[in-house]
């Protein structure tokens, strides 16, 4: 029983850090409903293998707390359908036809993907389309989720947040950051009746990419 439980708990820890960025041992113990001592054993193992790292953070007047977060190695444990071959291929293309041409090729790829997504989402209500889009992204290796933002201050517009906690094309994005701009354009093309804004960006050091989806006024 112990052998099967430990990897599962470690994966739960990694999943939580992937979604929330960082956490203390006490936070994780409460969320996963196991003892702080057991959590610290798992954290020690994960840190020893290089999947997580900790920083001392001052909270209030007490002693600094250890705040744990994923390392690059820890993020690499999550689905990533693109590998070094894709980056190598794009590098070769850049050397052969030039970076501008590669950018054009990548844009064409996203335009094709946008057409595919739109045909699969159809003309359903926006909330249903956002939910369906998240499922399509999950199938492609993204840990994606969404939630609705409750209207406030008399605003009757129902907005949505789409979050991706990992990047299935992270290796490509590091070498060709223009693909991130194409992704934003793609979401805007998929949801033509909405304004799509990037709220979080991994390239800027965030632990996730986030998009705010706001329906346009029909007036």
Secondary-structure map:
Elements: H1 2-20, H2 25-32, H3 36-48, E1 52-57, E2 65-70, H4 72-75, H5 84-97, H6 99-121, H7 126-139, E3 144-149, E4 159-164, H8 170-175, H9 178-190, E5 194-200, E6 209-215
Antiparallel strand pairs: 1-2, 3-4, 4-6, 5-6
Helix pairs in contact: 2-3, 5-6, 6-9
Short description:
InterPro entries: ArsR-like_HTH, SUF_FeS_clus_asmb_SufR_cyano, WH-like_DNA-bd_sf, WH_DNA-bd_sf. The chain has 219 residues and is α+β, with helices and mostly antiparallel strands.
| Structural domain count | 2
Mean pLDDT: 82
Largest sheet strand order? 3-4-6-5
The first-level CATH class of the largest domain is given as Alpha Beta
Task: Write down the secondary-structure element order.
Answer: HHHEEHHHHEEHHEE
Give the overall form.
globular
Topology, number of strands: 6
Helix tally?
Answer: 9
Classification by helices and strands? alpha+beta
Radius of gyration: 20 Å
CATH topology assignment of the largest domain: Muramoyl-pentapeptide Carboxypeptidase, domain 2
Q: pLDDT under 50 segments (min length 5)?
A: 1-6
CATH architecture grouping of the largest domain: 2-Layer Sandwich
Largest sheet: 4 strands, antiparallel
Proportion in β-strands: 15-25%
């Amino acid at each position: 029983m112990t052998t099967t439980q430990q990897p599962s708990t470690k994966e739960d820890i990694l999943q939580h850090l992937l979604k929330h960025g960082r956490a203390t041992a006490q936070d994780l113990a409460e969320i996963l409903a196991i003892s702080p001592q057991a959590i610290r054993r798992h954290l020690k193992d994960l840190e020893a293998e290089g999947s997580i790292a900790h920083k001392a953070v001052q909270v209030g007047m007490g002693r600094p707390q250890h705040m744990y977060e994923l390392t690059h190695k820890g993020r690499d444990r999550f689905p990533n359908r693109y590998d070094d071959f894709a980056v190598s291929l794009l590098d070769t293309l850049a050397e052969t036809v030039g970076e501008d041409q590669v950018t054009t090729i990548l844009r064409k790829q996203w335009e094709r993907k946008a057409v595919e997504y739109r045909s699969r989402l159809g003309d359903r209500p926006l909330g249903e389309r956002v939910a369906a889009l998240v499922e399509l992204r999950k199938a492609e290796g993204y840990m994606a989720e969404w939630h609705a933002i409750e209207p406030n201050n008399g605003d009757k517009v129902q907005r949505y947040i789409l979050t991706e906690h990992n990047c299935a094309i992270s290796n490509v994005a590091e070498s060709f950051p223009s693909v991130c701009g194409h992704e934003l354009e793609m979401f805007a093309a998929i949801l033509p009746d909405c304004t799509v804004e990037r709220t979080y960006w991994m390239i800027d050091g965030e632990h996730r990419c986030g998009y705010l989806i706001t329906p346009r006024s029909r007036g």
